[in-house]
Amino acid sequence: MLRISRIESSSGEVVLRLEGSLIGPWVDELRRSCAAVCNNGRQLSLDLTEVLFADSKGLALLRTLREIQRWIGRLLTVSDGAAK
Question: For the whole model, what pTM was predicted?
Fold first, then answer.
């Protein structure tokens, strides 16, 4: 199971905080959540602090998101909680 929490900052950035495993049907759920943010022109950040496991499809999605953000001239910010 994967829990996705949406946190909006005053600067317009949207952080999607993920908790659990990024596998199977949850990969598509994250894809839809990210698309909703990006389609509205918002800056996207992912907080992976509480992700316990990601399968090959989950890792592929993260790579794809990074490439899409780079292509449109934005930086995909990913946090693992190390800076906290």
Answer: 0.83
Q: How far apart are CA 77 and CA 69, in angstroms?
A: 10
pLDDT for 51-83, tens place per residue? 999 999 999 999 998 888 777 777 667 776 554
Give the tens place of pLDDT for each residue, 5-49: 999 988 888 999 999 999 999 999 999 999 999 888 888 889 999
Q: Calculate the alpha carbon distances from 7 to 4, 24, 37, 60, 69 in Å.
A: 10, 24, 11, 24, 19
The answer as to CATH 3.40.50.10380 being correct for domain 2-79 is: no
Scan for tokens 């999605």, then name that residue. Answer: 61
**Cβ(8)–Cβ(38) below 8 Å:** no
